[in-house]
User: Fold this.
Amino acid sequence: MPELNSSEINEITILCKIIDNFGDIGVVYRLCRSLTDINSSIKLNLVVNDLEVFKKIAGEINPSLGFQTYRGWNIFDWNNADACRKYFQKNIPAVILQTFQCGLPDWLDELIYGEDFSSSGKLCRILNIEYLTAEKWAEDFHLLRGGSRSKNVRKYFFMPGFTGKTGGLILDKAFLSALTDKNYRKDRLKELTETVPLSDEEFRILVFSYPKNFTFFFNAVSSFTERDRKKVHVYVASGAGLESFKKTEKEFKEKKFAVDYLPYLSQEVWDAFLCSMDFLFIRGEDSFARAALTGIPFLWNIYQQDEEFQLVKLKAFHDLLNCPATDEIAWLYNRNFDVKCCPEAVDAWGNISGCKNEEEAQEKMEECLKEILFNLDEIRPAFKDFAAKTLNLGNLSEKMLDFLVLIK
Assistant:
């Protein structure tokens, strides 16, 4: 871990424009906690465009304030230019972490590219922290210098990832405790388990997805409970996919497993809950990264792009995961049959499935999911191995600080 001797790097400004519900702010909130874990003397300024969403995972946040302090950090409302200018005119950032291609607020762009700062001789370092991907280009872009309109502003790309040629993933202390310490998990979950039962005697599945038809899920999990005589408990997280799960549930009058709907959870409680599961249906930038680190078998519901281009990103991850038993269901779970696939996705996956519509896909996904659940002992090693390799890459936050002190 670098010693931040330069006063210029004792303060870091982090920008977050929330697009995908909790995924963006989840990563940024975790990054802040990780940086504080490493060096509590670093002053953090967090600029967020939607404090209402932030409050869902950090309950003490007050969305009505243009400026507030939380956990020792300065929290600014991106949209409150007056409150932001009041602080940053006197404290022009020496380090900016620009997350997920969010751009700069107009008021900040004016400050760092204005004449006063350009003639000051001071330096502003901007790291563009990109979306997590297993695609090969991430290695090429990692630490690549970007263009700038001023010699006083130095820009670089910083890529999270799953290989040693990327920045790895954020490894904050709370998550690592949830991952490795069963007693820590129980302590974190005490309040939740008073209203949402959580038993070691049950097989536990977490569903956190975009809107889907879950017919395949209900059929497959019911078969799993019958054949293996498992007590299965399904937990459905709040968010975009909640109503579609409830809609499918209404169609199944006599399901053979328990279902509970989760309230919004703090990030630390969410981590403990996720690490207590036996199988995951996961979405979102932050939750996907956590799932990849747990070693728990999971299916990733990736954010849909035009012409199904997200399937290229999905294939890159599955190539690294190397668990063929999950490939076809991953493809089908993320397909929208109302949209024609781009050639890149078709080339990447080849003839992964013969399904040509949603009805055929539902039947095949049911078959695939039953095969996975019936043979979990054969599937778990691939996920555990992937998680171990990713953990061994080290902490993205430490690597980022190491790099920042090198920018002169």
